Amino acid sequence: MLSILERYKWHRFSVVTSQIAGHDDFIQAIRERISEVQDRFKFTILNAVLVTKPSDLLELVNSESRVMLLYATREEAMHILAAARDYQITGENYVWVVTQSVIENQMNPTHFPVGMLGVHFDTSSDRLLSEITTAIKVYAHGVEDFVNDPKNADYSLNTQLSCEGGAGDSRWRTGDRFFKYLRNVSVEGEQGKPNVEFTADGVLKSAELKIMNLRPGGSKQLVWEEIGVWKSWQKEGLDIKDIVWPGNSHTPPQGVPEKFHLKITFLEEPPYISLAPPDPVTGKCNMNRGVICRVAREADIAEVDIPTAHLNGSYYQCCSGFCVDLLEKFAEELGFTYELVRVEDGRWGTLENGKWNGLIADLVNRKTDMVMTSLMINSEREAVVDFSVPFMETGIAIIVAKRTGIISPTAFLEPFDTASWMLVGVVAIQAATFTIFLFEWLSPSGFNMKCFQQQTGVSTSHRFSLFRTYWLVWAVLFQAAVHVDSPRGFTSKFMTNMWAMFAVVFLAIYTANLAAFMITREEYHDFTGVDDNKLSKPYSQKPMYKFGTIPWSHTDSTLKKYFKEMHSYMRPFNRTSVTGGVDSVINGDLDAFIYDGTVLDYLVAQDEDCRLLTVGSWYAKTGYGLAFTRNSKYLQMFNKRLLDFRENGDLERLRRYWMTGTCKPGKQEHKSSDPLALEQFLSAFLLLMAGILFAMCLLLLEHIYYKYVRKHLAKTDRGGCCALVSLSMGKSLTFRGAVYEAQGILRDHRCQDPICDTRLWKVQHELDLARRLIRQLEREMESQGIKPSHKRRKHAEPETCCWLQCAEPQPSPIPSDLASTRLPCCDNIIRNTEVMRTRDMTRNHITTTEYGGRFCASTPQLYRSKRKKFKTRSHPILLSGKTEIAEMETVL
């Protein structure tokens, strides 16, 4: 049957069956065969109708199918074809191909239409005898193979079946096993025919069928006549003679509906349908300008010459767009002609005083066959007309205009969000400051808080404090070229470097993102949707927004139904066309325009200056569909084609072609910068945290070095190799390092009581004076030739000075005559004394004011008064800054 369809290029057909046994298997077998030959010839089953009553054939009446395959009994076929004749689906345009069960005995084919085709087995006596002989051979070969197989020794071919209840088995248990041997049998066929073999399902691989044609006989009665044969083993297995076709025609029908004409109504709306004037000379449209469509009323052109009217743009225009291209594809696929007419009242179709207007009114009043434009599907319209499946989704959207603004005064803060700035200012800076200061405090070679707690002055040798740490952190963060006091400890130095690394990463991210915000911003009304309170409650805004839509449209009826206050407010701002509404938004007459989302997206894309933007989410999402009159016979054929176009990508290609423009708002939205969130530069904070943890480990190692490693390293590092690696380490092993340690020892053993300190000073003064007098006596004795009895030291200590007497005389162990005697060498000694000369800074010594402030602050009032008297003398040698030099050198 499919070979007949393929021979005459009938691609589309329907299958009609009764409730005959195996009707489902018949349909399934056809589908499987279609899938096998799909690469060679494409078949399409338009309808599969199971007829139980005559009205079931109405599906074929509304279908475009012209070729039917019938599988039923003879009696059922007579009733089916009689009903088909009543429904006028027989005749010269309809072909019925029937099976063997319909032809049956080829006698008296009454009620069958002329021109039917049938598939028939040869049931003559000679043919039946030949087939019986072949069947016996097949059975015999099967038994032979079964018995000769050793695996079947325990199986018997005795069926033990009985039709009487209880007398035997109801199923032959060995039958399935025996069937396998039967289907593997190969029997030599007749001359010119292949061997008799079977498929895995037990079907003959090679079959021969007769092609029958119902035609008038000699007595003008219809008879089945053989017109050909079909042999399955041949590539071109179908051989057919002349056929009498339906309606006694000698030419085969087309197998498709004849070209039909449709009146299609539209309403222009870019990009779905756009209008342009035709060529003024020829009255035709160019290749890229679409097709001719009538825009004038039918009454206006009733008395006008049609060729002349085509030259007049007020009568006819060129229609182009998405819907026109889709309509052309429908016309090509379905084979119809059409007239494209604009709706007379120019409205989309809404209920007005209980009556429909616009496009829907033309369908309800059956003035048109179909509406083809961007007509939105809603429940009210579906109640009176039939819609096809949607060919595009849409919804109610809002379009606004962009306004050029100014740079935000907080633009320099916008590269990061609030949480990120808080983390930098409150956490990162504070953590870095306190860790640097803490590590400097705890470092063995850094700031010693305990010593500072014992005095009120500030050290001049190392200036570092918490506020100086803040200054250091801020200067490093902003890379300011200002003077800062660096920490001295190794751990705090490392922590400072880690903070500097964090600052580099932070500033790099900040600078890279700053340029996007330091530009002039485009401002617009950012509505969230139609249900935004700024629109749905317009009177609550000061000043109130101005917005509108197109009256008598789907958008207008939806807003009227769900937002009554909003609908009544926006009525003065409505516009008659989409382009008029968009122009009002651009000019500033309207703040927003509400309409179909896809149309507004198209207009945004067509704006070369990119001044427009759709905002918010779509409201009342629906789709565009083709509208037909109620119970239209064209609905199913258009639905089928729409689904095919969607599946093969034709709809998507049309959408991309018509919906794109010079401005792509989607790409521009991606260019807008958003503040960087915390997780986008969290790695910088992780770096800072890792630096803090590592610095803690370094602090522990530094203490271990000073406490356990340094004393052993000092014994081995005689050449100063450690200083080449680290100056701090080398310093801790040298003489200068010992000075620092001695200073600490001296501070620990120094008298803390001012009175004790005064007495110690007096004893030192008396001792120095006695030494000076002794040396003077020794020199006088030597001048008289008397040598002292004791050995003089090879290197005597330099004389310190003649000390000043206290303000109040104190008892002295020195004789009064010696004490009152002014030695001639005293002036020279005073001038040449160590403390009066400029210090030699090449020596390893230290000058400090560490005790100056504490000494004055902790002495009693009497002691301070004495100190004050000393300072009023003309000898500045008693300044507290020099009191420790001799002690330091003595200790060293």
What does this structure look like?
It is a single chain. Helix content is 41%, strand content 13%. It is α/β, with parallel strands linked by helices and 892 residues long. It folds into five domains: 1-157 and 170-256, Response regulator (Rossmann fold, 3-Layer(aba) Sandwich), CATH 3.40.50; 260-391, Periplasmic binding protein-like II (D-Maltodextrin-Binding Protein, domain 2), CATH 3.40.190.10; 411-519 and 681-714, no CATH class; 522-624 and 649-671, D-Maltodextrin-Binding Protein, domain 2, CATH 3.40.190.10; 748-787 and 794-891, no CATH class. It has an eight-stranded mixed beta sheet. A five-stranded mixed beta sheet has the order 13-9-16-24-17, sandwiched between helices. The chain has a four-stranded mixed beta sheet with strand order 21-22-18-23, with helices on both faces. It is elongated, with a radius of gyration of 57 Å.
SSE layout and pairing:
Elements: H1 2-7, E1 12-17, H2 23-36, E2 44-50, H3 58-61, E3 67-71, H4 74-86, E4 95-98, H5 100-103, E5 117-120, H6 125-148, H7 175-183, E6 208-216, E7 222-231, E8 238-240, E9 260-266, E10 274-276, E11 291-294, H8 306-310, E12 316-320, H9 322-334, E13 336-342, E14 351-352, E15 355-356, H10 358-364, E16 370-371, H11 379-382, E17 386-387, E18 392-401, E19 403-404, H12 418-442, H13 449-452, H14 466-477, H15 490-514, E20 522-523, H16 533-536, E21 547-548, H17 554-562, H18 564-570, H19 578-587, E22 592-596, H20 597-606, E23 612-624, E24 627-628, H21 635-648, H22 650-659, H23 665-671, H24 682-716, H25 721-725, H26 727-732, H27 735-749, H28 754-783, H29 816-819, H30 826-832, H31 852-858, H32 861-872, H33 885-891
Parallel strand pairs: 1-2, 1-3, 3-4, 4-5, 9-13, 9-16, 21-22
Antiparallel strand pairs: 5-6, 6-7, 7-8, 10-12, 11-12, 14-15, 16-24, 17-24, 18-22, 18-23, 19-20
Helix pairs in contact: 6-7, 12-14, 12-15, 12-24, 15-24, 17-18
